[in-house]
Design goal:
Oligomer: single chain
Number of helices: 11
Helix content: 25-40%
Strand content: 5-15%
Strand order of the largest sheet: 6-5-4-7-8
CATH architecture of the domain at 140-276: 2-Layer Sandwich
Structural class: alpha/beta
Radius of gyration: 23 Å
Order of helices and strands: HHEEEHHHEHEEHEEHHHH
Largest sheet: 5 strands, mixed
C-alpha cells in the first residue's frame, strides 16, 4: 500500500478552492457529470464567479454548490477547512480535540466541535455495514464495557443520592457497580479485522443477544468471557468462552483483541476528549471504529477519501446536536 499524500501536501493542495471543488466532484460524481440535487437532471451550467452550478430547469433552488445535499450543507466554512478537519479526525490515531482543530484551521472552538460531530456522524455506517462472521469471516470476539465519568471525587452524600436515583434502573448483575457509566457492546471479526460498537441501555441477556443477532451471522464462531448474559448464544452460534478468573487465553479462544480496542477507546476519551456526554457517545464510538476498520486497508489519503465518499445524504443541525435551537451561525 502506497503512502499517498501527506498532511503537508494536503494543506498545500487544498488551499486552492478549485482543487477542493474538483475533489468533491470526483467523489460525488465519479463520471464527471454534475447532476442537480433538486431535479436530478444534468443540464447545468457552471458559474465560475460564484463557484456554483445553475440548473437550466425551471424550479426553486436552481443554484447549488458542491456542498448541497451533503453533511456540509448550509455551512459558511469553505471546503478547504472541512477537508483539513476531516483529514485530521480520520487519521489521528488518538483522535483530535476541537481545540486543536480550531487552532489549526482558524475557526472558533465551538465551530470546530460542531464540525467534528458532523464528521463523526458520517463515520457511522452501522445501517449499511455487512454482518460479521459467517462463511467469509472468522471467529467474532464479543465483549461489553462501561465508559463514562467516574465519581471518585464525589462527596459521600452526593454518591449516595446518585445511587438512590438510579436504583430502579439497575440490572441485577455486575452492572450494579457501574451505574454511573454508560454500557457499550463491541464485536470484532478476527478475519476481516472489522469491528462494530454501540451504546446499549443495559447489559441484560436479552439486550445483548438482540444486538449480537443483528450484527453477527447465524452459525458463526463467537468468543466471549463467561458472563451469564452470553449463555444463550450456543443456540444460534458456535459459542466458546474463556474464564478470566483463571486465564485470558484458551487456545484460540480469547477476547484480547476487543479488549485492546476498549483500552484504546478509553484512553482517547480520557486523554483527548476529556469529557464526553453519554448522548454523544455513539458518535465517538463510530469515529473509533472507522479508524480501526480502515487501519490496515487505507493510507491517510484514501482514508480521508473514504470518509468524504460517505458525506452524501447526511445532515446534523446544531439544534439536533445540542437539543436546543442554534444561537450562532457555523
Amino acid at each position: 500500500m502506497s503512502k499517498g499524500m501527506t498532511l503537508q501536501q494536503a494543506i498545500i493542495h487544498f488551499s486552492d478552492a478549485d482543487n477542493c471543488i474538483k475533489y468533491m466532484v470526483d467523489l460525488r460524481w465519479p463520471d464527471g457529470v454534475v447532476v442537480c440535487p433538486t431535479c436530478g437532471r444534468n443540464d447545468v451550467s457552471w458559474l465560475s464567479n460564484q463557484r456554483k452550478w445553475q440548473c437550466k430547469s425551471n424550479h426553486a433552488k436552481r443554484q447549488f454548490s458542491a456542498k448541497v445535499g451533503t453533511i456540509f450543507e448550509d455551512s459558511p466554512l469553505g471546503l478547504d477547512k472541512w477537508i483539513l478537519a476531516s483529514w485530521m479526525i480520520a487519521n489521528c490515531k488518538n483522535g483530535v480535540s476541537s481545540y486543536e482543530i480550531a487552532r489549526n484551521i482558524g475557526v472558533t472552538q465551538k465551530s470546530a466541535w460542531f464540525m467534528l460531530h458532523r464528521m463523526r456522524l458520517v463515520m457511522d455506517t452501522t445501517e449499511t455495514d455487512a454482518k460479521l462472521g459467517g462463511s467469509e469471516g472468522g471467529p467474532v470476539e464479543v465483549d461489553e464495557a462501561f465508559v463514562g465519568g467516574e465519581p471518585k471525587n464525589w462527596h459521600n452524600s452526593k454518591r449516595i443520592a446518585h445511587h438512590k436515583a438510579v436504583r430502579s434502573e439497575r440490572v441485577r448483575t455486575y452492572q450494579n457497580a457501574f451505574t454511573h457509566k454508560t454500557a457499550v457492546i463491541g464485536m470484532l471479526d478476527r478475519e476481516s479485522r472489522q469491528i462494530r460498537a454501540k451504546v446499549v441501555p443495559n447489559v441484560r441477556r436479552e439486550t445483548l443477544q438482540n444486538e449480537i443477532l443483528d450484527i453477527i451471522e447465524f452459525g458463526s464462531k463467537v468468543y466471549t468471557d463467561q458472563a451469564v448474559t452470553y449463555k444463550s448464544l450456543k443456540d444460534k452460534y458456535v459459542h466458546d468462552t474463556v474464564n478470566h478468573a483463571n486465564q485470558y487465553v484458551n487456545g484460540q479462544v480469547h477476547t484480547n483483541s476487543i479488549e485492546n480496542f476498549w483500552s484504546l477507546m478509553k484512553r482517547n476519551l480520557k486523554g483527548t476528549y476529556v469529557a464526553v456526554e453519554p448522548f454523544h457517545l455513539d458518535r465517538y464510538l463510530a469515529e473509533q471504529c472507522f479508524r480501526f476498520n480502515t487501519s490496515r486497508t487505507h493510507n491517510d489519503e484514501t482514508r480521508c477519501a473514504k470518509l468524504f465518499s460517505q458525506v452524501l445524504g447526511k445532515r446534523l443541525t446544531y439544534a439536533e446536536l445540542t437539543g436546543k435551537e442554534a444561537g450562532a451561525s457555523f
